[in-house]
Amino acid sequence: MTIGLPALRRRTLLGGALATGGLPRLAYGQQGRDTVSQEPTDMRVRMMFEGRTMTATLHDNPSARDFFSMLPLDLTIDDYASNEKIAYLPRKLTEEASGPFGNERPYDLCYYAPWGNLAMFYADYRWSQGLIRLGRFDEGYEALHGPGEFPLRIERM
Q1: Across the chain, what does the average pLDDT equal?
Q2: What is the domain partition of the chain in residue ranges?
Q3: Residue 40 neighbours by CB distance under 10 Å
Q4: CA angle, 56 as apex, 55 and 58 as ends, to 5°?
Q5: d(Cα 122, Cα 130) in Å, to the nearest integer?
Q6: Is 113 in contact with 129 (CB distance < 8 Å)?
Q7: Can you name the residues that pair with 109 across neighbouring β-strands?
Q8: HEC secondary structure over the chain
Q9: What are the pLDDT digits (tens) for 107-130?
Q10: Is residue 35 pLDDT above 50, yes or no?
Q11: What is the CATH topology of the domain spanning 40-156?
Q12: Quick one: which of 62, 78, 71, 156 has its CA closest to 113?
């Protein structure tokens, strides 16, 4: 009986070491995977305020689809910080598309989950927890540079 116990311990230790050795490889594979689609879709939106029109193409992700399902919307667009305009949505969007993303650029259309608002960037920014990219502006984005608070109409194209 005492002979089997040391063999069992060796097997347990060996099995544990082998299982643990595979974890870093699995974790690395998870890090490199893009869980949020940045692929454009045929979901296009038109945003109008102060006599200006902007268009944007949404990405293929659950949060963008949820936003698209809410249209048309009448909101208020306002300045926030020195690099974005914001507009509060009537309800929060699904956060299924949350997660870090790279290649942040001016004229990205995002959703900030903690506050439930659209974030329309017109200058450099960095991803932060809770920020979900919905799509990218195509045309008319120069309108984002003008200061002020205005009624905003968002509709499907």
Answers
A1: 83
A2: 1-33, 40-156
A3: 16
A4: 155
A5: 19
A6: no
A7: 120, 135
A8: CCCHHHHHHHHHHHHHHHHHHHHHHHHHHHHCCCCCCCCEEEEEEEEEECCEEEEEEEECCHHHHHHHHCCCEEEEEEEECCCEEEEECCCCCCCCCCCCCCCCCCCEEEEECCCCEEEEECCCCCCCCCEEEEEEEEECHHHHHCCCCEEEEEEEC
A9: 999 999 999 999 999 999 999 999
A10: no
A11: Cyclophilin (2.40.100)
A12: 62
Task: Count Cα atoms within 13 angstroms, Cβ side, for 85.
Answer: 25
Residue 31 binned pLDDT confidence (cut-offs 50, 70, 90): very low
Give residue 90's Cα distance to chain centre: 18
Q: Cα(82)–Cα(72) distance, rounded to whole angstroms?
A: 28
Question: Token pair of 48, please?
Answer: 């109008």
Q: Copy the structure tokens of residue 31.
A: 């890090």
Alpha-carbon span 138 to 149, nearest angstrom: 22
Locate 130 and state its tokens.
Answer: 């809770």
Average pLDDT over residues 9-14: 47
Write down the pLDDT at residue 111.
98
The model's confidence at residue 63, banded by pLDDT at 50, 70 and 90, is: very high
The one-letter amino acid code at 13 reads: L
